[in-house]
Amino acid sequence: MEREGPANLPPNLEWRGEIPGVLRILDQTLLPGRVAYRECRGPEEVSRAILDLAVRGAPAIGLSAAYGAVLIAQHLLKLEVEDFRSRLDRQLTALAAVRPTAVNLGWAVARARRTAGEYGGQGARATATALLRLARTLHREERDTCRALGDAGAELLPRRGAVLTHCNTGYLATGGLGTALAVVYRAHEQGKTIAVYADETRPLWQGLRLTAWELSRFGVPVTVLCDGAAGALLAAGRVDAVIVGADRITRRGDFANKIGTYPLAVLARRHGIPFYVAAPLSTFDPELDDGSAIPIEERDPAEVLSPRGLELAAPQARAWNPAFDLTPADLVTGIITEKGVLTPPLAEAIHSLLPAPPGEGERSMA
Amino acid sequence: MEREGPANLPPNLEWRGEIPGVLRILDQTLLPGRVAYRECRGPEEVSRAILDLAVRGAPAIGLSAAYGAVLIAQHLLKLEVEDFRSRLDRQLTALAAVRPTAVNLGWAVARARRTAGEYGGQGARATATALLRLARTLHREERDTCRALGDAGAELLPRRGAVLTHCNTGYLATGGLGTALAVVYRAHEQGKTIAVYADETRPLWQGLRLTAWELSRFGVPVTVLCDGAAGALLAAGRVDAVIVGADRITRRGDFANKIGTYPLAVLARRHGIPFYVAAPLSTFDPELDDGSAIPIEERDPAEVLSPRGLELAAPQARAWNPAFDLTPADLVTGIITEKGVLTPPLAEAIHSLLPAPPGEGERSMA
C-alpha cells in the first residue's frame, strides 16, 4: 500500500483481503507502549473500536465507518435483496450514531448509503464490493487531501519557528499525513525547522501519548506541556502559531474540537498569535450555522476521576467530562483545507468552497 | 488544639512536644488514598517534605518553615552562642531557598531570623524556645487570618451559586481554613448553597486529589473537570465567580499561582465573570512591582511525561513543566485578604494595606 512518512510507522487502518475481508485497526489506547491491532470482522467490532477510542480523530473515524459499512454488508451476504437492504440501512444508522460530535462519521455513512442505494438492487455481494471500492477510494483521496492541506498550511510557517498544537491530528487521526500535523510534516519535509509544543490533552493524553510519539518518529522535535501551561507558553512568546484540528465546522466557521481547544483560541487572541484550524472539507457540516447546535459528547467521568485506573479522587467527587468544546469563528485566523487557507470573513469563504449540500433524504437518513 | 471545620479532618501540620519536639506533616502526596504523616525531627526532613510537596500551598509552606527553624535550632542546642548563631543563619538561608516562588517561605524565615536576632545572645535553648513560640503564634494568627479572609470573600458570593477554583487552597494549603476555599467554607457555614467546580490541576492533581477530598469532607458538593474544560464551563455560564489562591503578589497586583491560573483569568474576562484572588497579606511581596520579576520554579519533566509513574510518553519526548504562571493585575476583579477585599486600582489598595517593608538587611539575608 502507498504510504506517507517514514517507513517505520505502522498503518493505523488497513483492509486485508477482499470480500470477505478484515479491517485491522491500530489500537491507539495502547500507544506508545505497544503496537497492536484490533481485527474487525463485523460492524460491532468497528463500533467498539470507535467507542473505545482505539481509533479516533474525525477523519480516521470517517474512514473506519466507510470500512465498517463493508463489514456490515459482508455479514449479510446470504440475505435476499429486500432483507439485505433494510438490515444494511438499519445497521448503517446505528454505526453513524456511535459518536455524536465528529461530522465525518455521518458523512462517511452517508457516502456508503448512497453507494448502497446505487448497488443494492444488484444484491449483497455487488453492494459489498462497491462499498469496499468506496472505502478504498476515500482512503486514497484522504492521503491526497492531507498532503494538499499540509502544503497549504506549510506556507504559513516561518523557515524556523514553533507551533503549539492540541490533541492528536497526525497520521494516526486520518488516512494520510494528518491535519494540523500534516502542516508540520510538510513544512519539515520542505526543509523548514519547526519545533512543536504539544498539549498533553487530558483526559486521554492524546498529545502526550500519540502526538509526541508520531512527531518523534517523523524526526520533529516535540515538547509536551500540561494543558494549563499553554497560557504561560503563549505569554512567553515562544510560539509562532497555534494549529489545531476540528471535529465539525459550521457554515460560519464555528467549530468543535477536543476539549481544551477553546482556551487556546482565547489566549492566542490575547497575545496576537495566529490561530489556525486544519481540516479537510469533509469536516464541514453544511447543515449547521451556529456552533452551539453541534452535539457535544460527554464521556465517562472515570476518565477524569481515575486516569488510567489510578484512584486519585475522593469517593464522593463527581466529574464533568465533555469530550469537545466550541470555538467561535471570530477567534479563528484561518482554516487550512485541501483547497487552500480560508480567511475571514469565514462564512463567505466557506460558502464558496463547500460542495452543494447533500440531498435532504440522504442526510436525514444518516 | 483549636480546630476549624469538621472534626474528622486530620491536621496538616502539628508540633508534638516542646524542645526538643517533632513536626508532624500530613503527607499530601498520599491523599486521598492514605492519611499518613512524615515525622520531622531535623530541618532536612522539612526541606524534603516541602520539596516533595508532602506539604504545599504558600501559607502552609511558610508555617512549615517557621517550625523548620525550631528544628534547626534544637539540633544546635549544644553549640556555643557564636557557633550557634552562624550555623542557624546558614541553615535558615538554605531553608528559605528550597522552593523559589512562594513568598511565604522567605517571609517566615525572615520572621524566624528576626526572633533569632533578638534571642540569639541568650543561647541556643532560649532561641529554640522563642522560635517555637513564634511558630505557634504564626499558626494561631493564620487561623484567624483564614477565617477573616473567608468572611470577607463570602460576602461576594450569592445565596446560591457556583465557584470555579484551581489547585488546592483549602485547609491543607494553610494553617487554617484556607484561602480561596475558606471563602467557600465560610459561605457554606453561613447557610449559602455553593457548589464548587475544581480543576484537576495537572501535573500533580491537587484539585482532583486534595480539593475534592477536603470539600467533600466539609459537605460542599464538588465537581472535578480537566484543566482544559474550564473554557467550556465558563462559556456555558455555569459559574458565578472564579476564585484562586496565590503564591506571590506584587505591589501592583500581578501574581504567581499554580500553572493553569492565567488561562482562567483570561477566560473569565472574556465571559464577564468575576475573577478573585484570595491570599493573606503574608503572600504580598513588597519588594516586587512587576510580576515578571517573580522567579518561576520549573519542576521535573517526569511529572508531565510519566504521571504517577505511568509510562505514557515516547522515549524521545521532552517536557516543559513550569509549576506556576503569572497573571497580570488588570485581569483581577479583587484580592480577598484578611483586611477586606482590595479592588482596582490595585496598586493603591495594596499600598494602603501592606505593612511597612521589612528592613533591608533582614530581607536580603533571606
- Number of DSSP strand runs of chain A: 14
Strand content of chain A: 15-25%
Largest protein-protein interface: A-B, 58 and 58 residues
Round the Cα radius of gyration of chain A to an integer and report it: 20 Å
Helix content of chain A: 40-55%
Task: Round the mean pLDDT of chain A to the nearest integer and report it.
Answer: 94
Q: Biggest sheet of chain A, strands in spatial order?
A: 6-5-4-7-10-13-14
Low-confidence stretches of chain A: 360-366
How would you briefly describe this protein structure?
Two copies of one chain form a homodimer. By secondary structure, chain A is of the alpha/beta class.
Can you offer a commentary on this structure?
- 2 copies of one chain form a homodimer.
- Chain A is an alpha/beta fold and 366 residues long.
- In chain A, 40% of the residues lie in helices and 16% in strands.
- Chain A has 12 helices and 14 strands.
- In chain A, the strands form 3 sheets. Chain A has a 7-stranded mixed sheet. Chain A has a 3-stranded antiparallel sheet with strand order 1-2-3, covered by helices on one side.
- In chain A, helix 6 links the parallel strand 4 (160-165) and strand 5.
- In chain A, helix 1 packs antiparallel against helix 2, helix 2 (58-74) packs antiparallel against helix 5 and helix 3 runs antiparallel to helix 4 (103-119).
- Chain A is globular.
